[in-house]
Design a protein that fits this description.
- The chain has a single domain, classed as 3-Layer(aba) Sandwich (Rossmann fold).
- α1 crosses α5 (about 160-175) and α2 (about 70-80) packs parallel to α3.
- It is of the alpha/beta class.
- The protein starts with 5 loop residues before the first strand and ends with a helix.
- The radius of gyration is 15 Å and the shape is globular.
- It has helices at about 25-35, 70-80, 115-125, 150-155, 160-175, 180, 185-195, and strands spanning about 5-10, 40-45, 50-55, 60-65, 90-95, 105-110, 130-135.
- A hairpin with a 4-residue loop joins β2 and β3.
- It has seven helices and seven strands, in the order βαβββαββαβαααα.
Length: about 200
Amino acid sequence: MAEETSAIIGLGNPGPNYRLTRHNVGFLFVDFLADRVNGAFQTTKWEAQLLRCSIGQRRVFLVKPQTFMNLSGRSVAAFARFYSIEPARLIVVHDDIDMAPGRVKVVTGGGSGGHNGIKSIVQHLGCGDFVRLKIGIGRPGTATVHPEMPVDAYVLSRFSTEELELMAERFGQIEAGLDPLLGGDLAQARTMLNRIK
């Protein structure tokens, strides 16, 4: 596979019961991108749903691991190795409870932050050298975020209508800043995307 090909990997849990949950914001984002290119995902042997497409002038795979969140790395590593995509060309989109709802942040390396999907990917790739596009969902008890809910129940609960509208707005803003991210210009990508709050 050509070096310039990237993959945008949305993390989430498969199945209709999880579709609109906060933990599935990665799935929701790649679904948004698939709609924008009028594409349809196909189930593959890598335990993932896959769509090959172009975003702007960039060749991209959109990927949704179907292993459930905690085993995401098994699917991601098998896919990346088959297509010879280096970790630096993998953009993993996931929820972050330590950021305000709708905030966006591009990071590379670092720890998993307690996110089991990220932990699994690091384990199976053998490194943390991929790009992470974090989308805030808020932490229960912070500001006005559902103080009565424990974290595990909160991340697996559904977005409200208002929260879905906020996420849709953010997805459009992220899309506008994808070109430098896909082109490997992380400094420019951070300048454009990390200001989304």
